[in-house]
Specification:
This protein is α/β, with parallel strands linked by helices and 175 residues long. The chain contains five helices and eight strands. The two termini are 28 Å apart.
């Protein structure tokens, strides 16, 4: 069976949303708001939300703060995953991740290719695990955020999804 197993209980996860941008504010952060709305709509809990500049040290500091918080299971960042000089989110993730989840970026680019063609190669979406916390970095467009959630995260963060999901692995991440 592939899909939601309605006989299983839904387990909400605690999520923090990070927007990486030199220009956005909470009022203008459409991408971060997409995640905030989708997290709430699907029954998960938004624990925190922040905006940091496109600065590797600032991103690492925020990630470390959230990773050390036992009330946060997942961090989703938006922005800074491109290839320009200011795009440093993947480098920040590399500094904190203990294990990479390469399939996330691969699958995201595959899905993006179906919508935007070869422009998908400009995305450096990435994911990993640090101190028992899942970390996901997606591009800063609201469309990319919606695609990442609707096509990947929504399912992998749902405890009822079969044949397997990331929620079922949470108790074993720190083994």
């Amino acid at each position: 069976m592939v899909g939601i197993d309605e006989s299983r209980a839904f387990v909400p996860v605690n999520i923090a949303v990070l927007t990486v941008s030199d220009t956005r504010t909470l009022e203008t952060d459409k991408s971060g708001q997409v995640f905030v709305d989708l997290i709430s709509e699907t029954g998960h809990h938004l624990v925190d939300r922040a905006i940091v500049p496109d600065d590797c040290e600032a991103i690492v500091d925020r990630l470390k703060t959230w990773i050390s918080n036992p009330d946060i299971d997942v961090v989703i960042s938006t922005g800074g995953t491109g290839i320009t000089g200011r795009d440093v989110t993947p480098e920040a993730f590399q500094q904190v991740c203990e294990k990479e989840i390469p399939g996330f970026g691969e699958l995201f680019r595959h899905l993006s290719y179906q919508k935007i063609g070869v422009s998908a190669l400009q995305s450096r979406a990435t994911a990993g695990v640090a101190a028992g916390t899942y970390l996901f970095a997606v591009p800063g467009s609201s469309g990319a955020c919606r695609d990442a959630w609707d096509e990947i995260l929504r399912w992998q963060l749902d405890s009822r999804y079969r044949p397997c999901n990331l929620v079922s692995l949470m108790p074993r991440l720190s083994e």
